[in-house]
Design brief:
The protein has 336 residues and is an alpha+beta fold. The protein folds into two domains: 5-165, no CATH class; 175-321, 2-Layer Sandwich (Alpha-Beta Plaits). The protein contains twelve helices and five strands. The chain has helices at 5-9, 13-30, 35-56, 65-83, 92-107, 109-129, 137-165, 175-192, 206-213, 215-232, 256-272, 297-313, and strands at 196-203, 238-243, 246-251, 283-290, 319-321. The protein has a five-stranded mixed β-sheet with strand order 2-3-1-4-5, sandwiched between helices. α12 links the parallel β4 (283-290) and β5. α4 (65-83) packs antiparallel against α5 (92-107), α6 runs antiparallel to α7 (137-165) and α10 (215-232) crosses α11 (256-272). The longest helix has 29 residues, at 137-165. It starts with a helix and ends in a 15-residue tail after the last strand.
Length: 336
């Protein structure tokens, strides 16, 4: 799965929203303007925040360096210009800290450091251009040190957050991430009136690989299959390790028929991998869709899991779709 900016910021969302609201309220209270204009300022700020939230879903990371550099430069310029508005100077640190947080979490350490340097440089340059030296040189140096410290702290927090959601063997998102992401996608399905599909995938005869070659080779095979699945899944799909040799793929806004096609493509991709060195493995896939085959996340997992075991009983290396609610038998398997 290619991560989006929204996914990257997911752990920080509650704090991001709270900080943005606090800053908006403080600015509205201190800006010298009629009450109606202050309320409009808060409303515009909230609207801009949620517009950025939406835009983040369509920006993929890692972002090319030239794109991240352009975004960082534009954001820093806008923050610096905002700092020179009347009554906004008292919020200088908050504005720049938000900008640093965005650049560091979205694009990494280099962008965070670049943003910190650009922030201090642009602030000093504009001070010099307007002939109003509000800060001494030592204050600029202290400001830079503070911003760089913030970059280091954010990188550490981001690493801890990532480690908590990444499976060490496969590099995929782990079971904890899977459960939270699936609930979010089903909630979005309810709002949008669209299906969400789930593929449960199990490696065929994987115990034999471990018994014959050892667990180290088994872990290698599992990681290679995981890489094949990520490379052949769609960019919007979330490939996760469910547990043991069982993997899962969440397909947002996807019908059962579309998910079946994706599952078949993934199965074929794993089968083609057998031309490479190492033990040959295949996968059995079970596909289910919400709300057609289940009423909640646990039922969706159970439906996809049951179909996956049906695929194993039917001969392995195949895809079987779960029946819709009220039906009695799974869809006919698509044999290899």
């Amino acid at each position: 799965m290619q991560e989006s900016l929204y996914d990257r910021f997911r752990p920080f969302k509650p704090y991001d929203l709270a900080l943005a609201l606090v800053i908006l309220v403080l600015v509205a209270v201190h800006v010298n303007a009629p009450v109606l204009q202050r309320l409009m300022l808060v409303a515009l700020g909230i609207g801009a925040f949620f517009l950025l939230e939406l835009a983040q879903r369509f920006v993929r990371v890692p972002t090319p360096p030239w794109q991240s550099t352009i975004i960082v430069c534009i954001n820093t310029f806008l923050v610096t210009a905002l700092d020179f508005l009347e009554e906004a100077t008292r919020f200088t640190l908050a504005f720049y800290m938000l900008n640093i947080a965005f650049a560091t979490v979205a694009f990494g350490r280099r962008s965070g450091v670049l943003t910190a340097v650009l922030s201090v440089a642009s602030l000093a340059l504009l001070d010099a251009l307007i002939g109003d030296r509000r800060f001494a040189f030592t204050e600029y140096a202290l400001f830079l040190a503070l911003l760089l410290t913030l970059v280091a702290i954010l990188m550490r927090i981001n690493r801890l957050q990532q480690d908590a959601l990444i499976d060490a063997v496969t590099g995929l998102r782990n079971h904890r991430y899977f459960q939270g992401r699936l609930r979010e996608e089903l909630e979005r399905s309810d709002r949008m009136g669209r299906s969400t599909a789930l593929i449960m995938i199990d490696l065929d005869n994987f115990k034999g690989v471990n018994d014959r070659f050892g667990h180290a080779v088994g872990d290698y095979v599992l990681s290679q299959v995981s890489r094949v699945l990520e490379q052949n899944a769609r960019t919007v799909d979330a490939v996760c390790r469910y547990g043991g040799e069982e993997l899962a793929v969440i397909l947002p806004e996807t019908s059962l028929h579309e998910a079946n096609l994706v599952a078949e493509r993934l199965r074929e991709a794993v089968e083609r991998r057998n031309d490479q060195p190492g033990p040959a493995v295949t996968v059995s896939c079970g596909v289910a869709a919400y709300p057609e085959a289940a009423e909640h996340s646990d039922a969706l997992i159970a439906a996809a899991d049951a179909s996956m075991y049906s695929a194993k009983r039917a001969g392995k290396n195949r895809v079987i779709c779960a029946p819709c609610l009220g039906a009695s038998e799974p869809a006919n398997p698509k044999s290899a």
